[in-house]
User: Fold this.
Amino acid sequence: MDDKRDRDAAGRARNARPRDGLGRPLPYGSPGVERQPEGVVRTPAESLREAQALLDAGMPFHAHEVFEDAWKAGPAAERALWRAMAQLAVGLTHAARGNTAGGARLLLRGAAGLDAYGEAEPYGIDVAGLTAWARRLAEGLAGPVDAKESAPRLTGG
Assistant:
């Protein structure tokens, strides 16, 4: 059988189509935005810095991928934190794409995941600010948002 699916260097199926800044696939041969490398192990501070830079650039899909790496590579005790952060970023992605129902659902799911941290601010993450931002954005979604203008601050600094 001739397998014509796109493959990565390890032979895993991976769509090689270029993507736009919100992670949407573009036609082959189109100029796209460089994808985030997968499986990168970063310190929590590096993950937050890189994700914030991507959010500030209006690229929440790519920030989601950074958080997904932290979620998958980090200690089991921190997976819920990084999963909640990834949900916030992908919720903003959906909101920017115009998927208001999906965006709101993921923003609220991410906020609920962060609720478990209460007053704690692991790694300086502004838990209270992020949950308030996510709920406010989710409640007000009526159409596509500007990802760059709507991006949150991840830390209190």
